[in-house]
Amino acid sequence: MRTPFQWNTANFAWDSNPFGAQQSTNPFTWDDVALVTELAQAIGGGHMHPPYQQIFRDEKKKERFIKLLCKVKGKKYKKTKKIKDIKIVISDVELVVQEVSRIVKIEL
């Protein structure tokens, strides 16, 4: 389920970039926040076991999360490659949810 952000009701700009002259210093896109919101709901709900792993069955979401995790941890890479067997642990999910929530208000 995708969070229905709209330009006139979102509490952050969709094209934010902390390195350019934009409206906001938020480094996350609407798609980033939608994924983090979905993860926050999954780890809070506890109806799946483990709750967040169902979300990562979608390879695009898994790839986006890994990029978010790197951004949150302050890691920058000039080259990237796909690795299929990356294990995502709950502490990584909680870290990303906490950091994105600190900047963007996420409503659950």
Give the topology, please:
Blueprint lengths: L29 H16 L13 H15 L16 H14 L5
Helix pairs in contact: 1-3, 2-3
Question: Could you describe the 3D structure shown?
Answer:
The protein is an all-alpha fold. The protein has a domain at 30-103. Helices cover 42% and strands 0% of the residues. Helix 2 (59-73) crosses helix 3 (90-103). The chain is globular. Residues 16-22 have low confidence and may be disordered.
Percent range of helical residues: 40-55%
The fraction of residues assigned to DSSP E strands is under 5%
Order of helices and strands: HHH
Shape: globular
Task: Supply the number of helical segments.
Answer: 3
Largest sheet: none
Q: Compute the separation of the termini in Å.
A: 12 Å
Mean pLDDT: 76
The radius of gyration over CA amounts to 14 Å
Number-wise, the strands total 0
State the low-pLDDT regions, or none: 16-22
Secondary structure class reads: mainly alpha
